Amino acid sequence: METITIGKRKxxxxxxxxxxxxxSANHAGSISHAKExxxxxxxxxxxxxxxxxxxxxxxxxxxxxxYFQIGEGTWKGENLYGLYRKAYTPWExxxxxxxxxxxxxxxxxxxxxxxxxxxxxxxxxxxFYKIASFELxxxxxxxxxxSKQKPMILSTGMGSLEEITEAVEAVRGAGNGQFALLxxxxxxxxxxxxxxxxxxxxxxxxxxxxxxxxDHSMGSVGAVTAVGMGGSIIEKHFCLDRKIENxxxxxxxxxxxxxxxxxxxxxxxxxxxxxxxxxxESEAENLAFRRSxxxxxxxxxxxxxxxxxxxxxxxxxxxxxxxxxxxxxKRAVSDLKRxxxxxxxxxx
Length: 348
What we know:
The chain is of the alpha/beta class and 348 residues long. The chain is 31% helix and 16% strand. The chain has eleven helices and twelve strands. The protein has helices spanning 31-43, 56-59, 80-87, 91-104, 115-123, 139-146, 161-173, 198-207, 221-228, 255-272, 324-327; strands spanning 3-6, 9-12, 18-22, 48-53, 107-112, 129-131, 152-155, 179-184, 211-215, 233-237, 292-295, 310-313. The strands form three sheets. Strands 5-4-3-10-9-8-7-6 form an eight-stranded parallel sheet. Strand 1 (3-6) and strand 2 (9-12) form a beta hairpin. Helix 1 (31-43) runs parallel beside helix 4 (91-104), helix 6 (139-146) packs parallel to helix 7 and helix 9 (221-228) runs parallel beside helix 10 (255-272). The model has no long low-confidence stretch (mean pLDDT 93).
């Protein structure tokens, strides 16, 4: 399916790019911050605000052995359980945030991480879902979400082609054809040379679904390039201010940055346009500066048209150059002045 429908929006080839602002942990434990983020995302041009639905206990166990320690990267030194306790969005906020988004006029959805979070989101009327890159291999979860027969967006960061194929088959096996795939470099922050956006295009061609980019890099390069390569969805982490301390701040965009990205994305999709040949409206007046056949020496009636007295030059008011050879050797039917655009009725 080349397009999916989320609410009143069609997403896919030929449709406007769907831009998602990911709140994640940027609320920093404050529901007022969360609501501010919703409004700021709308003002910055986002089509949608996304949250995540989990608790530390639904993600992992409270254990301090080496398997549960983060040794490298943005969260180096953190314990998984402690990180998720800091980063999660309280479930008691989520219906209220959904209502706030609806009042604001921005779409709202969430990433569930286990069956209990899916059931909770169903209870508050969630209308579509995201599967995170790290859960791409959780086929039981994917099947359960797909069974709700609601649109889904799946991130494929770290996924092998086999794993992506298995996830796609899990969704389709549940009878759900309303889904899209996002290319994602699951590093925080990501760097451009690891985005491999060619894989995004390959997913669209292989699975025949809308594709896009879940972008953890800073700046607009990845997003704009993805749009140029046929991406229909862009997701970026969004914060009010990176100075507000939380686990996701360092790789999130502030409102002015996000708005600039949206502007770049909209310009990119206009530049991509649609398949069209011939002069555009803005080019039409320049057709006059193409080449055509002109009389370049005076020719008397009955005179031969030769390479000396007719030439292909600019501007474009005479015969098209493809008729030049046809005109050579013919005779003028009347006197022709130098600088006259040659027309079909002027020779025989």
